[in-house]
Design goal:
The complex is a heterodimer of chains A (588) and B (213). With 588 residues, chain A is of the alpha/beta class. In chain A, 37% of the residues lie in helices and 16% in strands. In chain A, strands 3-2-4-5-7-6 form a 6-stranded parallel sheet, sandwiched between helices. In chain A, strands 11-10-9-12-13-14 form a 6-stranded parallel sheet, sandwiched between helices. Chain A starts with 10 loop residues before the first helix and ends in a 27-residue tail after the last strand. Chain B has 2 domains: 93 residues, 2-Layer Sandwich (Alpha-Beta Plaits); 70 residues, 2-Layer Sandwich (Alpha-Beta Plaits), CATH 3.30.70. Classes of the chains: A alpha/beta (588), B alpha+beta (213).
Chain lengths: 588, 213
């Protein structure tokens, strides 16, 4: 077992080594102080939350804890998304706090988002006193019941003595193995209650073992399948980034000269400017990635759950490929696509196992030539008539050119998200932060806030759409108050454009409720929030205005009036054949 | 206005000819894949804590597993309970039930039982008492017990495997069944075999509890 594997030790054993209260009795504290201590012991630096009645004891305990940076968010959903981005960037659970009732239910979207994308998040929610639970008290919601389907684990705290270790357990669970969101519901009598217990370091519960090393005979079988393949392909999933396996992936693919496609969450795991990179596959992925996936004869899939936006119709997904599926979560094996070689374990560890088991590289020169041919045949391009309205792709590329490689891009959900993913060249892991599985519009701005708090020395750019931006725009007040230097590019097409695109393609252009000609002037709105506001209407303004927005010290909003009729291509129809991606509406 | 990218249209491309089954299994062009569901028993040893039943039933409904019955009961260890599920799923579906159950934190160990596992179900049924002698005869035939006999109704208990219970219910049908309550199947592995992998250590913990007493 590797070092991380050792965390699977039962909770009792670990707490005895971290607690050493033998001589002096611990001072009497409250449950709330114990919660805050548990966070400190876990090494938490920042929290995102919103005050409220039932969580007040925890906030009161935070008052004295000056080492913990608390970012007051405008809305609990924003707190969850900010914590989610923070968690993705640091690899440690992002912490969000909310009160009972509406505070907790407002977190639900953010928790569901983290659950779908396996992001480490821990939510602490206030709850009415235990004696009132079940009586429909003021601001009472069955938070544990409501969040059960969207969390990896959730707990109702029972007493002040155990609440600290309970928070530690939830923290460990959020981070270890396949990450995910966890929640601890904190009734007010527990947080106000007295205790002399000091919480230990975060520890996993009993019976929770995480398999880090794959079965050696399965590794050997997978390696020989790869060796004898003539059309091998790597499919890197989000687990490569979450498992810190980027270096192992890059070394392996380059050593054996195997072309690499990624999923959207894995953008940045393999440098998109490398010859072997085919970028990301799926519904709006590159034509060459989708051609390669459709024609490969051996697919090494690492840390992916074969989402339907990636696979299209299962019948035509990599239909001739022997599938090697590496995942730390055994329940992902053969859930959507049957794995010929299931390798359960940590991404980096298993890639290294595979690397040692490989005796030769696959003979795949023709295949690599074929992939290069597809790269030129289905090149990502766009028409850019200078007399027409601005093309969004041009704005994405312009910003990419202005900014350093390690710039973090966050997005909302919709057309702008796809363009930001397609036309920005990602070369580093943890530079692409987006809402993939749940597809949460409004994710971009609170995620940018979480990103800037996590990585204050990296530039943060948020691409958003007008519809998406409007959903969490209240968080701009937070960026202003905290003076966070983030740049938001609103690719404004006066519509929820992805819906409009589908209506045009599949609903005979009946644009019901998708056109937003009424959106506010975002530059003026930005100014009223205290941020800097800019607009771009002409091509020749793009570079200068983006540069001005970047150089503004604090949050800046650039309202870019893009071609309202621009659509996202390539596109694989929902449930369609990946190889039949449409390059234009006529091909759908 | 021109929209979209350049490149060959779908019809002009080389398209893969192979296919997968709807379950994502690569099809052998000569034989194809048969994917018939089968009925089986899954046993899970779980931590005896609040919410565990809700987690298991929530999982079953959310993942649309096809479930025949689910029973829960305590064990000799106060910390654990046993859940027995009867499901009807394809091979791949059965593996999903196992791995998804195992992923639930309160679930300690999960296993699909062999066909020779010891399985039992209990039914309590209440029939009209017009012909008490025939009711008693049927009850005797199925090794049952009369729990309550009154002027108008007789209540009996039958224990057995699924087939026996079904047969008995058919037989009692002639008297008119007024009410019926079935427990669902519960099961243990046969012989020396442990029902779930964690069983051995669970047993050790049980003995510890006794010596502490």
């Amino acid at each position: 077992m590797s070092e991380r594997g050792s965390t699977a030790v039962p909770v009792e054993e670990q707490t005895t080594t971290t607690n050493d209260p033998a001589d002096e009795p611990s001072p009497i504290t409250t449950g709330a102080q114990s919660v805050v201590q548990a966070l400190s012991v876990a090494g938490v630096n920042a929290l995102f939350g919103v005050q409220g009645g039932a969580i007040m004891p925890v906030y009161d305990a935070l008052y004295a804890e000056t080492d913990l940076q608390h970012v007051t968010m405008a809305h609990e959903q924003g707190a969850a998304h900010a914590a989610d981005a923070y968690g993705q960037l640091t690899g440690e659970p992002g912490v969000c706090l909310a009160t009972s009732g509406p505070g907790a239910t407002n977190l639900v979207t953010g928790l569901a988002d983290a659950d779908m994308d396996s992001d480490p998040v821990i939510a602490l929610t206030g709850q009415v006193p235990t004696e009132l639970v079940g009586h429909d008290a003021f601001q009472e919601t069955d938070t544990v019941g409501v969040t059960r389907p969207v969390t990896k684990a959730n707990y109702f705290a029972e007493d002040a003595d155990s609440v600290g270790d309970l928070v530690g357990k939830a923290y460990a669970l959020a981070r270890e193995g396949r990450p995910g969101p966890t929640l601890v519901d904190l009734p007010k009598d527990v947080t106000n209650g007295e205790t002399d217990q000091t919480p230990g370091a975060p520890a996993l519960p009993k019976y929770h073992e995480i398999q880090e090393i794959a079965d050696e005979s399965a590794v050997e079988a997978a390696a020989s399948a790869l060796e004898s393949s003539s059309k091998p392909l790597v499919l890197a999933g989000g687990g490569v980034i979450k498992g810190d396996a980027t270096e192992q992936l890059r070394t392996f693919a380059k050593r054996h000269e195997i072309p690499v496609v990624t999923t959207m969450p894995a953008i940045g795991s393999f440098p998109e400017d490398h010859e072997l990179a085919l970028e990301w596959a799926g519904m709006h992925g590159t034509g060459y990635a989708n051609m390669a996936i459709s024609h490969c004869d051996c697919l090494l899939a690492i840390g992916t759950r074969f989402d339907d936006r990636l696979t299209g119709g299962i019948e035509t997904f990599a239909p001739a490929a022997e599938i090697i599926h590496v995942d730390i979560d055994p329940s992902e094996i053969s859930k959507n696509v049957a794995a010929d070689h299931p390798l359960i374990g940590d991404a980096g560890t298993v890639i290294e196992q595979l690397a040692s088991a490989m005796e030769r590289s696959p003979s795949a020169a023709d295949w690599r030539t074929q992939c290069q041919h597809w790269k030129s045949t289905y090149k990502m391009s766009y028409d850019c008539p200078k007399d027409g309205p601005i093309k969004p792709q041009f704005v994405v590329e312009a910003m990419d050119e202005l900014t350093p490689d390690e710039t973090i891009v966050t997005t909302g959900v919709g057309q702008h998200q796809m363009w930001a993913a397609q036309y920005w060249t990602y070369t580093e892991p943890r530079t692409w932060i987006s809402s993939h599985g749940l597809g949460t519009m409004g994710y971009g701005l609170p995620a940018a806030i979480g990103a800037k708090v996590a990585c204050p020395d990296q530039e943060v750019v948020c691409f958003d759409g007008d519809g998406s931006f409007l959903m969490t725009i209240e968080e701009l007040s937070v960026a202003v108050r905290e003076n966070l230097d983030i740049t938001v590019c609103v690719l404004n097409n006066n519509a929820v454009g992805m819906v409009r695109q589908w209506q045009d393609a599949f609903f005979e252009e009946r644009r019901m409720a998708s056109e937003y000609p009424w959106v506010p002037a975002f530059d003026k709105l930005a100014e009223s929030f205290g941020a800097a506001g800019f607009t771009i209407q002409e091509y020749d303004e793009v570079a200068d205005t983006l540069a001005a927005a970047r150089s503004y010290d604090g949050p800046s909003i650039v309202d870019v009036f893009i071609d309202p009729e621009e659509n996202v291509y390539p596109m694989v129809k929902s449930g369609g054949n990946n190889a039949e991606f449409a390059l234009s509406e006529e091909q759908l | 206005m021109s929209q979209g990218l350049d490149g060959p249209a779908p019809k002009e491309r080389s398209l893969p000819e192979a296919r997968r089954s709807p379950e994502g299994i690569r099809l052998d062009p000569s034989t194809g894949v048969e994917h018939t569901p089968r009925r089986t028993v899954i046993s899970a040893l779980v931590a005896h804590e609040p919410g565990v039943l809700s987690e298991v039933s929530g999982l079953v409904s959310r993942r649309q597993f096809n479930i025949e019955s689910l029973t829960v009961g305590s064990t000799t260890n106060p910390e654990t309970a046993r859940i027995t599920l009867v499901i009807e799923e394809s091979e791949q579906g059965i593996r999903q039930v196992e791995t998804q159950l195992k992923k639930l934190l309160p679930v300690i160990s999960v296993r699909e039982l062999n066909n020779d596992a010891v399985r039992r179900e209990l039914v309590v049924l209440k029939v009209h008492a017009e012909g008490p002698e025939q009711v008693h005869a049927i009850t005797e035939m199925y090794d049952g017990t009369v729990l309550d006999a009154g002027p108008r109704t007789i209540t009996v208990e039958i224990t057995g495997d699924e087939q026996k219970i079904d047969d008995a219910i058919d037989a009692y049908g002639q008297f008119g069944i007024r009410e019926i309550a079935r427990t669902g199947q519960t099961a243990l592995a046969r012989g020396d075999e442990w029902t779930t992998h964690a069983e051995e250590s669970r047993y050790e913990r049980t003995t510890t509890v006794h010596t502490n007493d």
